[in-house]
Design brief:
alpha+beta, Rossmann fold, 205 residues, six-stranded antiparallel beta sheet
């Protein structure tokens, strides 16, 4: 799975961006105070919302998701201050991901729906800090794309691995970065046959 493009609207100093293509190595160049860090942070926030959605979805906590992941998005700080009086004030993230053949097979097994190689996802989040996921999946037989949006977002989130280390960071940020690295390592351990076997119940002789 690969991130193909990204867009964001109404996030910190960013009013709106065009569709930004992604590659294996993406470099953002520009003068100071032009929003480069905010653009990267917006992308990280969107990916973390998906990743957290997957984690809480596995626990059956779709309805309380927003309260559980409020750290991923802080409306008072992340939504433009001059727009916060709007009745419908929310940040919009748009992601397009590309799925390879193995991903498509797993997608069919997990979501029970066919898909081509591209999948566009829209995330909207406002003052209540509860994200709304919309999957604009094209194709015949998918008349209500939002019907399985939670499952699809959870599937995409389960494929993500995010590690963002800012150039300037507090001790708390550094600790969270280390926690994320440890969590990623533990995820890989949980998939090993030795770990799976260790969790199997044993029958006393």
């Amino acid at each position: 799975m690969r991130l193909k493009s990204f867009q964001v609207k109404d996030y910190r100093s960013i009013a709106s961006t065009f569709e930004i293509g992604s590659a294996n190595n993406l470099t953002i160049v520009g003068p100071n105070n032009e929003g480069k860090s905010n653009l990267v942070t917006a992308l990280v926030t969107a990916l973390r919302l998906l990743e957290d959605h997957s984690r809480y979805a596995r626990r059956g906590r779709f309805r309380t998701l927003g309260r559980s992941i409020s750290r991923a998005y802080d409306w008072q700080n992340d939504y433009p201050l001059q727009l916060q009086q709007r009745a419908d004030a929310h940040t919009t993230f748009k992601l397009k991901v590309t799925l390879d053949q193995d991903d498509q097979v797993q997608f069919l097994e997990s979501v029970e729906s066919n898909i081509n190689d591209n999948l566009p996802i829209t995330i909207r989040i406002g003052r209540d800090n509860i994200p709304q996921f919309e999957v604009n999946k094209p194709g015949k037989g998918y008349a209500a794309p939002t019907k399985k949006s939670a499952q699809i977002a959870a599937f995409i989130g389960s494929k993500l691995s995010i590690n963002y280390i800012a150039a300037i960071r507090t001790a708390r940020d550094s600790a969270r970065s280390v926690e994320a690295l440890v969590s990623q390592a533990l995820k890989q351990v949980e998939k090993t046959p030795e770990y799976i076997d260790a969790l199997k119940p044993t029958i006393p002789r």
